[in-house]
Amino acid sequence: MFLAKIYVTYKPSILDPQGEVIKSALHRLDYTDVNSVMQGKYFEIKLEAKDQRTAAKEIEEFSDELLINVNMETFTYKLSEISSVEE
Amino acid sequence: MFLAKIYVTYKPSILDPQGEVIKSALHRLDYTDVNSVMQGKYFEIKLEAKDQRTAAKEIEEFSDELLINVNMETFTYKLSEISSVEE
């Protein structure tokens, strides 16, 4: 069993309105030393695969296909093998 | 300047309907070896602070106060010092 941690962020050229709103809210709460806020998505996905390479290929495929908007977003991921009994 | 990477997830006892929907969609796309999907949020926040300890304290405070719903969600974070000129 493999665990993939997938981090989805906006591409650098894309505006992140949610991040801007959160930054403004933090400033209003007096956290004025916050310079920038980027809000993205985070997925933890467990999957069966015969080896790490197969798992990686599958993750890259379905992330592009389903998890992200390829025009606006990009992703990175970390993959590790876990014991099947692990929760 | 510090960079905080903050990962927000549901507490274990809380249902994650979005994760379930994504899992079903992956199964329909024939990614049937996906066992579980958890969808959370991911923030990258840059802030000025006099030292790492001050930055950590601030991040813990404002995450509880603004970024998460403390009844349903929990968070972890990684903090690193970055050069101010770094993009």
List keywords for this structure.
purine biosynthesis (chains A, B), elongated, alpha+beta, 3 strands, phosphoribosylformylglycinamidine synthase activity (chains A, B), Mth169, Chain: A, nucleotide-binding (chains A, B), EC 6.3.5.3 (chains A, B), homodimer, three-stranded antiparallel beta sheet, 87 residues, 37% strand
Indicate the topology:
The structure is a homodimer of 87-residue chains.
Chain A: E1 2-10, H1 17-28, E2 34-47, H2 52-67, E3 73-81
Antiparallel strand pairs in A: 1-2, 1-3
Pfam family, one (chains A, B): PurS
Subunit structure (chains A, B): Part of the FGAM synthase complex composed of 1 PurL, 1 PurQ and 2 PurS subunits.
Keywords (chains A, B): ATP-binding, Cytoplasm, Ligase, Nucleotide-binding, Purine biosynthesis
Describe the fold and architecture:
Two copies of one chain form a homodimer. Helix content of chain A is about 30%, strand content about 35%. The mean pLDDT of chain A is about 95. Chain A has a single domain (about 1-80), classed as Phosphoribosylformylglycinamidine synthase subunit PurS (Mth169, Chain: A), CATH 3.30.1280.10. Chain A has two helices and three strands; from the N terminus they run βαβαβ. Chain A is elongated and about 50 Å long. By secondary structure, chain A is of the alpha+beta class. Chain A has a three-stranded antiparallel sheet with strand order 2-1-3. Chains A, B: It is found in: Cytoplasm. Chains A, B: Part of the FGAM synthase complex composed of 1 PurL, 1 PurQ and 2 PurS subunits. Chains A, B: It is an enzyme of class 6 (ligase). Chains A, B: Pathway: Purine metabolism; IMP biosynthesis via de novo pathway; 5-amino-1-(5-phospho-D-ribosyl)imidazole from N(2)-formyl-N(1)-(5-phospho-D-ribosyl)glycinamide: step 1/2. Chains A, B: Its EC number is 6.3.5.3.
